Amino acid sequence: MSKNVFFKRSLIVLLSFSFFISTVISFPATVNAEPEYNFAKALQLSLYFYDANKCGPGITGGRLEWRGDCHVEDKELPLIPLTEGFRGTNLSQSFIDKYRSVLDPDGNGSLDLSGGMHDAGDHVKFGLPQSYAASTVGWGYYEFRDAYIKIGEKEHVEDILRWFNDYFLRSTFRDKDGNVIAFCYVVGEGDIDHDWWNPPELQNSKMIKDFERPAYFATAEKPASDQCAGAAASLAINYLNFKDEDPEYAKKCLDTAIALYDFARKYRGLGYSDEYYMSSYDYDEMSWAAVWLNIATGEKEYIDHIVATDASGKYTGYMQRIIVDTGNDWQNIWVHCWDTVWGGVFAKLAPITNTERDWYIFRWNLEYWSGVAHEDPKDTNFLSKTPAGFSMLNPYGSARYNTAAQLCAMVYRKCKGNTAFTDWAKNQMEYIMGNNPMKRAYIVGYAPDGASHPHHRASHGSKTLNMDNPKDQVHTLWGALVGGPDAEDFHKDITSDFIYNEVAVDYNAAFVGACAGLYTYYGEGHEPVPNFPPKETKPLEFFVEAKVSTSQENNERSQITLRIHNESAYPPHYETRMKVRYYFNISEILDAGQTINDVHMEVYYDENEKCYDGKAKYSEIMKYDDKGTYYVEFDWEGKQIYAAREIQFALIADQDKTTYKGNWNAKNDYSREGLGDEYVITKKCPLYIGNEIVFGEGPEGPIPTVTTIPATPTPDSNNFIEGYIKPDFTYTDTSINSGFKVEIEGSGKSVLTDSKGYFKLTDVKFSSSSQTIKISKENYLYREIKNIVINKNVQLSTAQSPIMMWAGDIVKNGVQDNSINMKDVLEIAKSFNSISGNALYNINADLNLDGAINMSDVIIVSKHFSKTSADYM
């Protein structure tokens, strides 16, 4: 068949598929699609934001492949008074000397303040928003535990709660009598941190000059009762959540919570805020801790601390901050949030005291938010709404405040059975899910046309410290609740806009619990996303670019610039053993009677030396073979390399001393091939990490693996069968090579391929009769290789010539029909234009595993349309 005929037939098939997809099957549009209301999915996704905001060691290998250990220097924070450069702590030297045995029992001069959560898209561990988030996520789990269990997220939420509260435990320093001496509530400095827009894994004092992360403590000298009480509340809730399954851990949490609360009562005062999270007062946090300690211990005194009065009826407890005396009440026009947790306080206080006052305050706030009529028909005081009906407290983080009111509505229904408030909450959450004038979900990753540019350094993945570069985020910040709409229902989906697209631990906190409540009351039939989160399509992480200056190249020299890349993102990390080689050939020099001694190298520019942590090591000119091939090597051993590094050098040949002419000719140089004045990616300058090539190859190609095969096998000896298998289409995710099952039919012996497509069946019995090898994998036509005689070791294929497999026999209801036909096209059509994380997404139809079901998958099917397993050659 001629190439032209083949092209025409392929084109007809593709056009037919395109016509079928666009006219017969109805797909959800990627823009302005009907919103999906799935509370199980929203609850599931909401938790993953906290995986993205974890700080410290123990992150690598977790639920998000693109997050890794970070800020590990917090584990050895210097125990010194704060310097002018913000190094150390806010503790005085006299305080350190007095309590050194408590603060530094190991005597190493440092503090372990690792762990906890980054605040938002930045990386400071701020006090109030962190304790608010920890307690509120814990509160949601306490109220609606079954929701998390039913969708399979129990272990996940408990991991998050431990991560928060283990940090509070680690940050609490107590003497031998159990009394709190100091509590660390902030690590980092906002003004320093905000100067750097890069992933947290890359932030350390070795690579960023003056990048300090000071620690701020509550002590008797410097009280911070608001901070201590907030952490105490979280630890008390954590006790309740873990007391049945891990009583020893739960007891430790409760014991620390009581100690922190007692310390806060003894030393009242507001903590350091760095002007980012300035607390209004501590009465609400003290009440928040007290009400949960009452629930945890049953001790009535904690409630007395809130509602105590004097003989005249004036409040002397924490209530005094909002109500003068028992003859008055209070109307809360705000909501449960990091700075004022009164909304949460009364949601838990009312069922305990069961007073008309506390129920009124709890209920009135929900009436105010929802627009549900007040019990007093004369009361017409309600929160304003956007034109589309979204209850709007403040345009800076409008969605966080709204979802906090939703959580309180869920708790009210749990107590009172009232459905009016939760009906309102359901309507509001559906607005957030996309039922709004922008047709945009404000939950990242929830819908294809949702917000996708959160103000978040880790997910953005900039390599240039620029929030506008790249334009689109490198990673999906699953489940993050962005700032949300303004008072006119408008929203900007831009990374740099920290009003519309801010994300933070406090933004998601009540959102999680609201989703759990909505799933409990309205989630029948809602299901979480299977196999979540999906693998991201990984870009080329290590590679080399090169160029030559053609104007500088002549018969005496070549000037070359190499640019090595560490674009690692899973997770991002520095490499300290990178090196690159440039190969060249001097046969023309040798033919003219000169030697390698007539060639030398000069380095003109070393970017790492000029801009980072020191110069590379430059090798002497090294001999490679006896055919005139040599190389030079540039080694960044011990240097912290991330993103790109340039090195510019020249290879210069001396003139022939007899003819006074130059004999240099770069056209036969292996690494010079394909280079010009502009950068191009080249595989002919191999890139190493240590002694392993991670990109490219040398002049002789990759070093082959030598297998010794017995010359004369005996009937009693065992053999092996090995080879390589790959799909016959282009792909970027090498994991697609893995999972092909190779079996000897009838023997029960099988093996799966690895990520390189390699397999090796070992201990195969000697046989003089022919065998059949079957290769299979879901969504591929199985293939049989017959008449294999195993009387010696068998190599079925090589990496250069692998066995090719045809994709397109898509699994349908757990079954494949061993044919690529219209049924497979229909499977793609059902999910066409969906992406991973969308309810319509079907991973079986995503044949190239790029996270999207699109024309690429159609083309793969078209390649072998109407074929069966019998059509393999």
Automatic annotation (TrEMBL):
<dbReference type="Pfam" id="PF00759">
    <property type="entry name" value="Glyco_hydro_9"/>
</dbReference>
<dbReference type="InterPro" id="IPR008969">
    <property type="entry name" value="CarboxyPept-like_regulatory"/>
</dbReference>
<keyword id="KW-0119">Carbohydrate metabolism</keyword>
<dbReference type="Pfam" id="PF00942">
    <property type="entry name" value="CBM_3"/>
</dbReference>
<dbReference type="InterPro" id="IPR002105">
    <property type="entry name" value="Dockerin_1_rpt"/>
</dbReference>
<keyword id="KW-0624">Polysaccharide degradation</keyword>
<feature type="domain" description="Dockerin">
    <location>
        <begin position="803"/>
        <end position="873"/>
    </location>
</feature>
<dbReference type="InterPro" id="IPR016134">
    <property type="entry name" value="Dockerin_dom"/>
</dbReference>
<dbReference type="InterPro" id="IPR036439">
    <property type="entry name" value="Dockerin_dom_sf"/>
</dbReference>
<feature type="signal peptide">
    <location>
        <begin position="1"/>
        <end position="33"/>
    </location>
</feature>
<dbReference type="GO" id="GO:0000272">
    <property type="term" value="P:polysaccharide catabolic process"/>
</dbReference>
<keyword id="KW-0378">Hydrolase</keyword>
<dbReference type="GO" id="GO:0008810">
    <property type="term" value="F:cellulase activity"/>
</dbReference>
<keyword id="KW-0326">Glycosidase</keyword>
<dbReference type="InterPro" id="IPR036966">
    <property type="entry name" value="CBM3_sf"/>
</dbReference>
<dbReference type="GO" id="GO:0030248">
    <property type="term" value="F:cellulose binding"/>
</dbReference>
<protein>
    <submittedName>
        <fullName>Cellulase</fullName>
        <ecNumber>3.2.1.4</ecNumber>
    </submittedName>
</protein>
<dbReference type="InterPro" id="IPR001956">
    <property type="entry name" value="CBM3"/>
</dbReference>
<dbReference type="InterPro" id="IPR001701">
    <property type="entry name" value="Glyco_hydro_9"/>
</dbReference>
<dbReference type="InterPro" id="IPR012341">
    <property type="entry name" value="6hp_glycosidase-like_sf"/>
</dbReference>
<keyword id="KW-0732">Signal</keyword>
<dbReference type="InterPro" id="IPR008928">
    <property type="entry name" value="6-hairpin_glycosidase_sf"/>
</dbReference>
<feature type="domain" description="CBM3">
    <location>
        <begin position="539"/>
        <end position="700"/>
    </location>
</feature>
<dbReference type="InterPro" id="IPR008965">
    <property type="entry name" value="CBM2/CBM3_carb-bd_dom_sf"/>
</dbReference>
